[in-house]
Here is the input.
Amino acid sequence: MGIRILIADDHHVVRRGLAFFLKTQKDIEIIGEAGNGREAVELARTLKPDLILMDLVMPEMDGIQATQIIKNELPEIKIMMLTSFSDQDHVIPALEAGASGYQLKDIEPDELINCINKIINGENQLHPKATSHLLANLSNKESNEKNSIKQLTKRELDVLREIARGKSNKEIASSLFITEKTVKTHVSNLLSKLELADRTQAALFAVKNQLVE
Here is the structure.
């Protein structure tokens, strides 16, 4: 059985062109076309394609929203963004939504087939511009986290390490020879400085940044 593909793009000419080309490939079957994100979600639910070629900017529901819904409900479906946008504001949200690939519409036909096959086999396929944006975003996050750590006092760092070790406020107070009220104040301060929602995120942050073993 060939690769069952759904094409989602609000431009009829683009959909028809992609469908016409892909139908010439012996191992690919076009099982549906959607003109917007909402249609893409509905067809994904009923047709359950192996892969969706998803445009980003579409009426009613964009490709990122559609991807989030589809990946939440049908995580086995692979999604490759095929778009004209290569900026960070589109690349990062698309990948975070669950897309396995991000390619531009000027991609060569043979390369498109190559990307489709690799995504079906479990690989991620990113356009070089998308890759550079992703790496830049990761670098910025790491830099921001390091700067956030520098804002913590020594005592706040001590409390953060104890949180990562799974200790309660009472246990931290006993370990650091301070009151529980003081511990609560330190916890509140460090969560605010690190822009974290709760103790679980704080513990993960500490481990990720190698503040504890």
Remarks:
- The mean pLDDT is 88.
